[in-house]
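Re-run with default settings, no changes from the original entry. Doing this only to confirm the output is reproducible before filing.
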Amino acid sequence: QVQLQESGPGLVKPSQTLSLTCALTGDSITKNFFYWSWVRQPPGKGLEWMGSVSYSGNTKYSPSLKSRTSISRDTSKNQFTLQLDSVTPEDTAVYFCSGGEALGDYWGQGTQVTVAA
């Protein structure tokens, strides 16, 4: 019954900030022991975990992206947000939100984001 859906612009210019939102339905983002993550897949490459926010609001980030990444939640809207600063064409990817009691229990359909001038 849990559904996740990503939304945001499909095109971002280099040096700008990429912002995406994941809307959750069917359960609460604050459900005990649940974690909510952002994962991306560049063309021709594997999945890359970016970071997560827990049911209690604690965040954790991939070391390679920590300096540019911020994940936050809005409990009143039952959604969480990804911000990736100073993007380059190498950030072009399909971006997924995911979550559950175990990582990957639930997935959004993914959204294509292209970084180009």
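The radius of gyration is 13 Å. The mean pLDDT is 97.
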